[in-house]
Amino acid sequence: LVVATGGGAFSTDGNRRIIEESGGISVFLELPWDVLQRRLECDNKDRPVYQSAGQARNLLEERLPHYRCATLSFALNGDETPDEIVETVADAVQGMPCGT
Question: Which of 27, 45, 91, 93, by CA, is between 20 and 30 Å from 82?
């Protein structure tokens, strides 16, 4: 089962604890700011807290320490295909214990 949390969900200690204590494996896919900014410029209508690129950058900087607490982190370039990312994550997760 894969659950994609909202951007702020993993910033809360209690939410991270629930994921960890339930045996979940958290994954952070880190992209360079310029890639994120380009994506936000193209698709920001469904992002409830998005106001501007500057505000989004500040929010990212605020949340990064929390995101980096994930069980697994991957520094991406932004040119990877979804299939490549899935394969990378699946390879890393294979054999890791997870909850039942």
Answer: 45
Size of the chain in residues: 100
User: Could you tell me how far CA 21 lies from the centroid of its own chain?
Assistant: 19
Residues in CB range of 23: below 8 A, 6 or more apart: 97, 98, 99, 100
* Three-class SS state of 28: strand
C-alpha to C-alpha distance for 62 and 11, rounded to whole angstroms? 9
For residue 40, the model assigns a pLDDT of 84
The tokens describing 76, both together, are 């991406």
Looking up tokens 């969900």 gives 9
**What are 15-65's pLDDT values in tens digits?**
999 999 999 999 999 999 999 998 888 877 667 677 888 888 999 999 999
Nearest-angstrom CA–CA distance, 99 and 87: 21
pLDDT tens digits, one per residue of 52-98: 888 889 999 999 999 999 999 999 999 999 999 999 999 999 988 87
